[in-house]
Amino acid sequence: MGVGESGAALSGKRVLLVVGGGIAAVKIPDLIRRLRERGASVSPVLTRAGAEFVTPLSLSALAEEKVYTELFDLTDEAEMGHIQLSRQADIVLVAPATANLMARMVAGMADELATTVLMATDKPVMIAPAMNVRMWEHPATQRNLKQLRADGVLVAGPNEGSMACGEFGPGRMAEPLEIVDALGRHFGSGPLAGKRAIVTSGPTHEPIDPVRYIANRSSGKQGHAIARALGDLGADVVLVSGPTALPDPPGVETVHVETAVEMRDACEAALPADIAVCAAAVADWRAEAAGQKLKKQEGQPLPQLALAENPDILAGLAGRTTGRPELVIGFAAETQNVVEYATAKRKKKGCDWIVANDVSPATGTFGGDRNAVTLISAGEPETWPPMAKTEVAERLADRIAWYFGHDGPGAPE
Ligand code: C5P
Has this prediction a pTM greater than 0.70? Predict the structure, then answer.
């Protein structure tokens, strides 16, 4: 969904905006402006820390609404209690969601007006995290993120980029327009609104020692395009990506991993989901990684790699007895007998559909921008003409939307 379309979706919506205490709060006036441009009304609630970064006066001038802070607590209680405040909105948006605020949400603390509102609300909650990269990557924050997601909290961003603290990495708050888009998708009438999708993409890197790894030539282009296409149809998408040179697709939550085991864990952490599309070229084997860099030693036998089998993420998701995504889709990259091998693979993996493609070098599929695929479902195999990977992604997303619209596999041409 483009920014234009999020306008219609947001028109008349009431956003209760909890402003946390981070430097990214300076983007909040712009966020309020963008939301109002799209017809949403915004009631800001400033945390104590948030009030250190933006003033109630500036926010109320932009929002043309009363700004709630702890300071006005008593009078507000007379006018409107925190329960009512938390429920009159269509959504509660927390931006910036600092590490501290996320931790307080997980712990269920109601230690000031903003956190009390978050505890009392019966409405969907979306957070836009913003913090230093180390704080974002800290196991405590990642644990909290997982818990918040399990509690049903929606997450917009963060982005990767340079930060106010001078460091570079994930932790930058999503841009105001990206947050607006995420809200638009939530309220959107896109055919996949309300559906959650997990998409794997890219290669995995399996370490041999601290400086060497086993990899493959997957670019991630097809998986990233699918994540974006599903997001554009309104799905809530988690992209679990191995190392690629691609930017994170907008409107999609991207989790970066290196190894197959990390990819499997990230997929499991992203459950429950309605859709899983496994487009990653996961390494079949991992090496028993040496703790130190392997050294060339004259006269010594060559180092031997002891390989262990990696988890099959696709088969694992498709074979779940509880919490299996309703539609599990795999890829089959073959260099010969594509349909025959892919049909066998669909059975073996237990998935619903297989997107089969010929990756023999002459096709230029691996690393290239185009793809020629055959969709294998329970019905007849269906060969699509060669097209851009972005078009394959859009067609597959349309097909997925068709499936959910019709409660059954397949779709008319
Ligand atoms: O077995 P093969 O690698 O040919 O199967 C390809 C399909 O299985 C792709 O959808 C790929 O993403 C998925 N796969 C996986 N985990 C693995 C190996 C493959 O999810 N360890």
Answer: no
